[in-house]
Amino acid sequence: MKSSGRLRSRLLSCLAVAAILGVTAALLFSGYLWDTLYARHVRAEQRWEQRKPLHYIYKIEIRSSFWTNRFQIEIVNNVVQGTINLDSGEPAEIWAMEPGSYLHTTNALWQFLLIDGIFQQIHAATRPPRTTQAFLARTNPNLYYLLAMNGTLQFGWQGCEQSYPRVRYDAEYGYPSELHLYGQPCSTVLELNTPISLSIKDFIKLP
User: Fold this and answer.
1) Angle, helices 40-51/115-125, rounded to nearest 10 degrees
2) Which pLDDT value is given to residue 25?
3) What's the pLDDT band for 15 if we cut at 50, 70, 90?
């Protein structure tokens, strides 16, 4: 009887330890997800707001399925002082570059050119999900679409919510040096519905 009691006690102890480890692992994983999907973007934007120079210049490349645009942007006190088309070397005529293109006949391209506007795009893509299914679809969109195309999952889990972006931030200033946005799934504008990637290079603080 004593042996049976000791065995039961040990079993309960093992179960208690396993439960504690499970809860700890779940909390750690939740913290990792929170930091990866949200908090690190907030920290980067705060770093940018604290450290961005009054006068700076950078080169940016924006890529989609339809076009690739390369610009040099000069900013003074949050105001654009100059925009150069790096492919032609001439001042950029943004709205005339692609006749008939939505991004070039409206001001939509500016939201991908200016660093403050890029952070707004990241904000939109990191809003809290409305459902667990939307969260799963937004976290790994490539896997979700693959499973949906195979018939394993149904389309529509994501709703109109953007997938979480992939972002690499500059360690010194906090601006997004590499960004991939998966697109706005319910947009009627094809260029906004499809993925867009951008990279910022040669960021220089000027006097």
Assistant:
1) 160
2) 47
3) low
DSSP string across the chain = -HHHHHHHHHHHHHHHHHHHHHHHHHHHHHHHHHIIIIIHHHHHHHHHHHH--SEEEEEEEEE-SS-EEEEEEEEETTEEEEEEETTT-SBP-GGGSSTT-HHHHSGGGHHHHSHHHHHHHHHHHTSPPSSHHHHHHHHSHHHHHHHHHTTSS-TTSSTTPPPPPEEEE-TTT--EEEEEE---TT-SSHHHHS-EEEEEEEEEE--
Instruction: Identify which of 91-100, 183-192, 194-203 has the greatest average pLDDT.
Output: 194-203
Q: Which residues pair with 59 in a beta bridge?
A: 72, 201
Query: 29 or 20, which is more confident?
Result: 20
Contact status, residue 112 vs residue 196, Cβ threshold 8 Å: yes
pLDDT for 9: 63
Specify which of 64-73, 106-115, 156-165, 173-182 reaches the highest per-range mean pLDDT: 173-182
Give the CA dihedral 144, 149, 151, 152, nearest 10 degrees. -20
Chain centroid offset of residue 191 CA: 17
Closest of 101, 13, 1, 116 to residue 58, by C-alpha: 116
